[in-house]
Amino acid sequence: MDLQKITSDLIKFRTETGNLAEVERCMRYVQQIAKQIKAQVEYYKKDKLAPVILISNCEKQNFDIFAVGHIDVVPAADNMFIPYIQDGKMYGRGTLDMKSFAVVALNTLEYVIAHNLPINFGVLLSSDEEKGSFGLEAFLKDNPDLKSKIVFDVDVAGDIDKMVVRCKSPVFVKLTAEGKEAHGSTPWDGIDANERLMQVWQNIRQIYPYYSKDGNKPENTWVDTVHFAKIEGGEVANVISNHAEALLDFRLTEKSTIAELEENLAKCLVKGVEYKIISSGRPVVMDEHNPYICRYKEMASDFLGKKVEYEYIGGATDSRAFAERGSIVIMHSGSGDGMHASGEYVVWKSVEQLAQIQQKFVDWYVTGK
């Protein structure tokens, strides 16, 4: 499989989450790749949800190894959908997050099929991961028996020298504040919804501190965090706001629970302000001594010629759904930078290295050597 060409082709599809026409065009392209490698395809589309595609070498729902990823991306300028390579790096939206690694997963499936390896191997790609994975959620609900002993999670991009063994739980919360309109010159005649919202904001910060690049990074970053993703309130300058909203993005470690978060939020509320949990996911925490994870780490270290280290990250991953079903999740991808930013790139050598490491692990899984 020509990893570079197929990755470049995928980048050119403007699969920003919600752009269903382009997502479906991209999915058709992926189906063509699947046909070329003689894989089986299940295309799942329900109601108005984003589609999901399952590509495999078998019809069974009980897999040995499964690769999970997504083809949707966050919005970007037009020029970011024109990939190019410079100084060993491929630039473009989705190079790092995570079309290059989706191609690696397809490449591993091709390897399994071409060598007629006696394992059930599948690749599952969703197309709304950046905004909740609702399509994948529906697919898994309709396929309750879908399981895999091992899951390759390649959506943890950052450094091929690192293997992720813990991901935090994402919890999105909406705050709604109500007030009373009045002229801006007579605030005593109204109740400012913006003020109420900011009071709650400050109360929340007493429990969940503010961290930034200005030098207050904690020594141990495995802590609960929150950032205020979106704030809206007021229509014009001279009218007291009677309604305000905020969207909060919490990232919780495995030591915290939704119930504890709700208890904290309740303490922070003031009159006229309510909260609602929009969505939540469980953290992914793997046993660092699991024999499969240890073996993968050992093989990756040997291949790269340097010791691969474990790390914990705050980002969420679709593999949490499989962790809930008992899968051993191996979270490893290539190197790069600029995820969700204008300078996104992947180090191309790391893409090729990841492809070879996956193949070596599959061989070991089959032969024990």
In short:
This protein is α+β, with helices and mostly antiparallel strands and 369 residues long. The chain starts with a helix and ends with a helix.
Describe the protein's architecture and organization.
- 33% of the residues lie in helices and 26% in strands.
- By secondary structure, the protein is an alpha+beta fold.
- The chain has two domains: 3-168 and 283-367, Aminopeptidase (3-Layer(aba) Sandwich), CATH 3.40.630.10; 169-280, Alpha-Beta Plaits (2-Layer Sandwich), CATH 3.30.70.360.
- The protein has a six-stranded mixed sheet, with helices on both faces. It has a four-stranded antiparallel sheet with strand order 4-5-17-16. A four-stranded antiparallel sheet has the order 10-11-9-12.
- A hairpin with a 2-residue loop joins strand 4 and strand 5 (89-91).
- Helix 1 (3-12) crosses helix 3 (95-114), helix 5 (193-207) crosses helix 6 and helix 7 packs across helix 9 (348-367).
- The two termini are 25 Å apart.
**What's the story with the biggest beta sheet?**
6 strands, mixed
Please count the beta strands (DSSP E, at least 2 residues each): 17
Distance between the termini: 25 Å
Count of alpha and pi helical runs: 9
Number of individual domains:
2
CATH superfamily of the largest domain: Zn peptidases
Structural class: alpha+beta
Order of helices and strands: HHEEEEEHEHEEEHEEHEEHEHEEEH
Rounded mean pLDDT is 95
Percent helix, as a range, is 25-40%
What's the CATH first level of the largest domain? Alpha Beta
Q: What is the CATH topology assignment of the largest domain?
A: Aminopeptidase
Largest sheet, spatial ordering of strands? 1-2-6-3-7-15
**Gross morphology:** elongated
Q: Which regions have little confidence, pLDDT < 50, spanning 5+ residues?
A: none
